[in-house]
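User: Second chain of the day. Same drill as before.
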Amino acid sequence: MKTCLSVLVCLLLAGCSRQSDSAKYDKFFRDWLTQHGEQEVVVDEGGVGIAASPTRLKTSTYESNKHDGGGYTVELEFKTQLPGGREIIDYVAGMGDTEEQAAQDAMLNFTLSTFHVVYKAFMNPDDPHQSIQEVSIAGQKRQMLSGDLFLRGSEGSGSIDLEAMRPQIQAAVVALPLSDGPHWIKVVYGQNAGERIIVAATFDNQDQVALTETIGKLSWPKSDGFYMAKQFIVIK
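Assistant: Same format as last time:
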């Protein structure tokens, strides 16, 4: 069970090694953008994007591990180059019987938790698949784009309803002292047998201690088994 938990924790947190193979993941971005109706998909030295936006996406393998008991864990490093030169970096992992299946699982993880937020916030504001919520931060009206709460759990964890966590996480983010311009937040929470095993929050790619403490104190549902949740949020 300890090994299983370690692998699942890896699915939502960063690893420690890197392999340069970003070119083989370009097709993933091209196909995804095409399937979302983009007719002018471009690939240049910055990565993959659309002609109407300077935002570019690229991915490379950060870590790949073959397990003694069979199967792989692959962690990908997703980079989103924003207008003005800032960069969103998101480390996402997946599991599979083969290395390729594990990489595909990681890309699914990214798609379900992060991609739609990045796409609407920085590439296509007309995308109907992602909503925008107007919030007030320090007396100013801002836009919040919240990705789905991506959930993974073990057998025996039962039905876990995280719907009540959304407003709690959003309230914690809105309370941050945010400067003008876009910001991005990643929240990860994990629990096993009713006990918290991991909580982490990053702000603009950096660990955010105060937000991590706040997230850990929220009313996360109890479970007899294991579960882990991730949410990606952009503030504009």
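Residues 99-122 form the longest helix (24 residues).

User: Great, on to the next one.
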